[in-house]
Every structure is written in C-alpha cells, then in structure tokens.
Write a structure and sequence with these properties.
Chain A is of the alpha/beta class. Helix content of chain A is 38%, strand content 18%. In chain A, the strands form 2 sheets. In chain A, strands 2-1-3-5-7 form a 5-stranded parallel beta sheet. In chain A, strands 4-6 form a two-stranded antiparallel ribbon. Classes of the chains: A alpha/beta, B mainly alpha.
Chain lengths: 147, 287
C-alpha cells in the first residue's frame, strides 16, 4: 500500500447533499462535525464543493427534480469516490416511497456503495458508514494498476 | 555554489516545515474549539491524497496559473533566504498573487470570479504595508538587502515595533485567517463555496496547498527578520506571531471586504507611517 493509498484513507473530504429529506438526517450529519463527535479526528472535512470531495453523503430519497442534481454532483467529483446513502429515505425511499413525485432510493440514480439505515440515522451510525465507505474506497483503489 | 546549495535546501525543506506548521495550526485550532482535532501530519495526508486523485482541469490556463503561483512564491522565498532585495521580494510576491487571481478568473464559475475579485481587494489592502516595511528597512539600514540586516547590531524590532504590528494585520490576510479569509479559507470553513480555489481539484488543488506552505514559511521569515541577532529570538517571535494569528482566527467572525480595506488602511498604513516618521526624525536628530 503506497503513501497515496494510505493518505486516501486518512483524508476523506465529504460533500453533503439533501435529496428530498425531511432534514432530520441532515441535522444528524452536521452534529458529526460538532466538538462532541469531532469527525476531523479522522481527517474528515465537510467541503461543500464536489470538485474537492471524496465521499458523497446523500440524505433523503430522490425526486424527479433532484435526480439531475444528484447525477451532476456525482459526475463532478474526481475519481476515486464513494457514495453513502444516509437514512431510510436515501436507502429505499422510506415513508415517501409511494409518493407520486419520488423515484425512490439514491441507487435509482447513481451507484451507492454504503447504506446507513435509520430514521433519523444517528451520528454514530453515520460515522460508521463513512468508515465503512473508506474500506470500499481502499478496495476501489487497490484494483487500479498504477496510481 | 554555496547559494545554489542554500536555494536547493530551501526548496526541499520549506514545504516539509510549512506542512508541519499547517498541521500544528489545525490541531491548535481544534483544541481552541474544544475538539481533539486531526493528527499533525494531516496536511500531508490531504496533499498526497489530492496528488493521487483524477486530474480534472477546467482548462489549461488554470493549470499554468497555478504553476506560476507556485514557482513565483518559491522564487520569492529563495530570494529572501539568500538575503536578496526586499523590494524585489515584495514585487515577486505580488506577481505570484496576480497569477493566482488570473487562475481564478480563467474559469467560468461565478464563485471563483468573486473569490478572485476579493483576492484583488486583499492585495490592495496588504501591498502598501509590505512596501512601507521595505522602506522602513531601507531607512534603518541604508539598503533594501535582507542580508545586510545580519550585520546590524540592534534588531529591527527596536526601531520598527509599529511596523511589526501592521505586519501582523497583514499576516491575517496572507495566512487566510478570520476575520479576513474572504477570497478562500482554510480547514472546513466555507465562503463562496471555496472562493478562488473552487474550480481547482485533485493534483492542481495540491499545487495550491503546497504553495500555501511555502508562503507561510516566507511570511514567518518576514517576522523573523525583525530580530536576526541572535536568530533564535526572531524564530520565537515568529512562533508567537503564528500563535496570535491562530487566536485571532478563532475569536473572530469573518468581516466584509470594506471592513478589511478600512481597517488595514486606517490602522496598518498609519502605524507604518508613524513608525517611519519616527525613524526619519531620529535620523535627523530631532528626537
């Protein structure tokens, strides 16, 4: 494992996008950044810019309006990248699954690597999900021939 | 030959030292906010990760300007460490900043454009003080050469304390710390998405980060210049300045650009002018 691969696991920068969430999960994600949970311990930074991000955290299911935004954000992120669906709605559509305007979970639009269930997902579960996402990131990068 | 070795040493050692300082910055900032914070080596992890990411440039000019920024900052640092002309160093630094700004303007993103415009305003705020600093050094030693300061028996701080205070104000802008982190900011802070660096990604963002490390060392070097005999006092002075900047960063909110201009022009320039006036009067035997 080269120094670049090691660094990838040590410095995951997050991009957080609210698909069509009730904001419950969003508040829990922001709680991770407070001194109580302090995700910067793991080098995690909330970037707010897809061009700088490694991990895409999406809360809420995808509706017709948000679908192209989610796709656009995903395409703007440089490789290697992983996607984490946070909360019941992002995983499956949740209680909104049979609404007329919903497409369903995030995986209807872009490939999702890690699913974090919960309504709302607890900050501990979200941090676990991100750590799990790092393992996926490690697997993705080990497949590459040269870095 | 000796100069070449010094230059090579500076080019190799400065980013290591700068990255280390930037790590200390992040740990101290976290502690001041009641957090544990990342490991000290975090900036190196960030940069290595960025270097390994897929290179996506919006256009080629953007990359050229980023490289220009890096080389010009390295040039000014090497000039400084070789004891070069302070006026030239200030101008090369200004060229570096212009290169960075043009990089921000070379893309279409409005965030990047507003960030670049704010960076221009920042230059407007800090350049006069840097030039007055160079003039102060000239009035004191009769030369713009940094190397000449080594021969001075009394340190610069004794004759130019007010200029040092003005330089501290400038340091806040140059280190991209609150209250003046208008064009782009560090850590997890966001302003205009990421301001002037919004459109840089992967290895090109890494170039910008490494340039910031060189710049940090150059700025701390400027503070060290105020006490070069013995040099360790100057280094302690620079460390103290670094720490004070972190405290200011953590107790201040971000201000708007017109506050920045008003503050640097009213306090910074006037402090410098009073100091230069005193040196001039002292030289004429008035005081």
């Amino acid at each position: 494992m080269g120094i670049i691969n090691k660094s990838r696991l040590k410095s995951p920068w997050l991009l957080h996008y609210d698909g069509s969430s009730c904001n419950g999960c969003d508040i829990e994600i922001l709680a991770c950044l407070t001194p109580v949970y302090d995700v910067e311990r793991f080098g995690i930074i909330n970037t707010g810019n897809p061009k700088h991000a490694d991990i895409l955290l999406i809360t809420g299911g995808v509706n017709h309006r948000a679908a192209r935004v989610v796709q656009n954000l995903y395409e703007q992120m440089p490789e290697p990248k992983v996607v984490v669906a946070v909360g019941a709605c992002a995983c499956t559509g949740g209680i909104f699954h049979d609404c007329y305007n919903m497409l369903g979970g995030i995986d209807k639009v872009i490939p999702v690597d890690v699913y974090v269930p919960g309504c709302a997902a607890r900050p501990e579960a979200i941090i676990d999900g991100v750590v799990e996402a790092l393992k996926v990131l490690a697997k993705k990068t080990s497949k590459e021939v040269a870095v | 030959m000796k100069q070449l070795i010094i230059a090579l040493f500076v080019i190799l050692a400065a980013p290591v030292l700068g990255g280390f300082f930037s790590g200390i910055d992040r740990v101290l900032t976290a502690r001041m906010q009641g957090r544990v914070g990342p490991p000290v080596l975090q900036p190196f992890y960030d940069v290595f990760k960025l270097l390994g990411k897929e290179p996506i440039a919006v256009n080629q000019r953007q990359v050229a300007w980023a490289l220009g920024y890096l080389t010009l900052i390295i040039a000014s640092l090497v000039l400084f460490c070789l004891g070069g002309d302070l006026l030239i160093i200030v101008f090369v630094m200004a060229f570096a900043a212009v290169s960075f700004i043009l990089g921000g303007f070379s893309v279409k993103s409005p965030y990047s454009h507003i960030g670049s415009q704010r960076e221009l305003l920042q230059m407007l705020a800090y350049e006069p003080v840097l030039i007055l600093l160079a003039i102060g050094v000239y009035l004191q030693t009769g030369s713009f050469m940094v190397g000449n300061l080594l021969n001075q028996s009394t340190p610069l701080l004794v004759s130019m304390p007010l200029v040092l205070i003005a330089l501290m104000i400038i340091l806040t802008i140059k280190m991209r710390k609150s209250p003046f982190d208008l064009s782009t900011s560090h850590h997890g802070h966001q302003e205009l998405v990421k301001g002037i660096t919004t459109e840089y990604s992967g290895p090109y963002l890494a170039i910008i980060e490494i340039t910031h490390w060189y710049e940090l060392i150059l700025l701390l070097g400027l503070v060290t210049m105020f006490w070069l005999q013995p040099v360790w006092v100057g280094i302690i002075l620079a460390m103290a300045a670094f720490f004070i900047e972190l405290v200011i960063d953590n107790i201040c909110a971000r201000l708007t650009w017109d506050w920045m201009l008003k503050f640097t022009w009213s306090s910074g320039i006037i402090l410098c002018l009073i100091n230069l006036g005193l040196i001039f009067a002292h030289g004429k035997g008035v005081i």
